[in-house]
Amino acid sequence: MKTFLSTVLISFLLGWSALAGAEEINVEAAGQQAVEAALERLGAGPEDGTLACLTNAGYARPGGQDTRILFDTISGCARISLGRGNLLAVHGRPDEPLWFAFVRRQDDTHLPAVYVTVAAGRVRASAPLDIYVAKHRSFEPFQAVFGPKAFSIVSLANGWADGMPADLVAAACFHDHFCCGVASGYFTARFITDRLPLAEGERYAYIGAPAWCQDDYLMYYLNLTPGKHGYYTMAYPWSRAWKTDQQTFSDLGGIVIRFNARTGRGKADLLRFDWGWDKFKQFLGEPDLEMDWKTMSWLHVWYVKYLFHETGSPERFVSVVKTKELKNRADMDALVRMGANPIEAILGRDASW
After folding, report:
1. Residue 297 and residue 55: Cα distance in Å, rounded?
2. Can you tell me the distance from the alpha carbon of 30 to that of 306, in angstroms, rounded to the nearest whole number?
3. Cα atoms found within 13 Å of the Cα of residue 263, Cβ hemisphere only
4. Measured between alpha carbons, how far is 94 from 110 in angstroms, rounded to an integer?
5. How far out from the chain centre does Cα 216 lie?
6. Nearest to 164 by CA among 264, 70, 49, 85
7. Angle at CA of residue 345, ends 335 and 213, nearest 5°
8. pLDDT at 120
9. Is the CB of residue 342 less than 8 Å from the CB of residue 218?
10. Contact of 234 with 336, CB cutoff 8 Å
């Protein structure tokens, strides 16, 4: 017995322990073991209301098995569910290993997490790791535990813990991480619905020119999919200004179309998104900060905080650059057909493009 207990203790201190070892896993049993291990290591009970679970269950198919049943398994073991908004199904491929990340909102600056993976018939759980992202927090410790899923898990968990809107968290899960780009879509979508409402018989279409992470939110929230001819995209750098002979247009933010297919009439509005970089730095208290979004992952978490720091209208960030009247179907086709250049069609020619 002493030898057994010593072995278990050593395994826990090393950070990982095997909880099951069959070649073929029972999905429901594995889910139950994952919840029990996470609760124990987080020092939480089944009725604890401070918990959340991030998982690729519902997408992953270990051994070809459907994993949607795990939503019920998790909800049956703890106060974690889709309806409560603390069960986050993170988009992934079906051939990826099944994983869970359980987090506990301990207080405003502590967010301990336990990472559980299911692979090769084994369920393995990590020791708790605080994944609260303070300013200048390195992501290297997160990468050591979560591997390539580090940014996805840590950004989503911090977004949930910060109380971001439920639809934004859900769209970020569809996007598979919570970056500054997908958060910007929240304001673009509300600008569209609030300031550019549909008239009778009209439908929205959106052109990602330029396109960035916000487009996944727009497709999710406004139900604009390529298959229903509601979303189009074209390769144009979001950081590039469009320069005509008369004017330079910076911070372009995509094109929203309101079109009536029966009458053949509508409008196309080219948007602008003001990122407010200087105001963001003031929010951080570091006006001279040199920002590197690729190596300073913490910036994404804090930019999301900045976006929602002050309540207000979408006009804080979004505006219309120019509107083009669509008088017939040909005008619409000139924006979306193969080979079209909708920015040029609305703003005029940029000789350097």
Report:
1. 21
2. 39
3. 13
4. 32
5. 8
6. 85
7. 60
8. 77
9. no
10. no
Sign, CA torsion 342/347/351/353: negative
- Count the neighbouring beta carbons within 10 Å of the beta carbon of residue 302: 21
CB-count exposure of residue 34 (10 Å: 0-12, 13-18, 19+): buried
* Residue 111 contacts residue 60 (beta carbons within 8 Å): no
Reported residue count of the chain is 353
Per-residue pLDDT at 13: 40
- Residue 127 CB: number of other CB atoms within 10 A? 16
Given CA atoms 141, 145, 149, 153 in this order, what sign does their dihedral have?
negative
Task: Report CA 38 to chain centroid distance, whole Å.
Answer: 24
Q: What is the pLDDT of residues 63-83, one digit of tens each?
A: 899 999 999 999 999 999 999
Q: What is the mean pLDDT of residues 87-98?
A: 97
The model's pLDDT over 180-204, given as tens digits with 9 standing for 90+, comes to 999 999 999 999 999 999 999 999 9
- pLDDT tens, residue by residue, 206-224: 999 999 999 999 999 999 9
Yes or no: say if 116 and 202 are a contact pair by the CB < 8 Å rule. Answer: no
Amino acid type, 250 = S
Q: Read off φ and ψ for residue 283, nearest 5 degrees.
A: -60, -40
41 touches 11 (CB < 8 A): no
Which helix (DSSP H) or strand (DSSP E) does residue 344 occupy?
helix 342-347
The single-letter DSSP state of residue 3 is H
pTM: 0.91
Pairing of the two strands 87-89 and 51-55: parallel
By the 8 A CB rule, do 207 and 187 touch? no
Which residues does residue 100 pair with via DSSP β-bridges, in sequence order? 55, 116
Give me the residues paired with residue 125 across strands: 17, 116
Given strand 265-273, what is the order of strands in its sheet?
Answer: 231-233, 203-208, 252-260, 265-273, 318-326
Give the integer Cα–Cα distance in Å for 341 and 115: 46
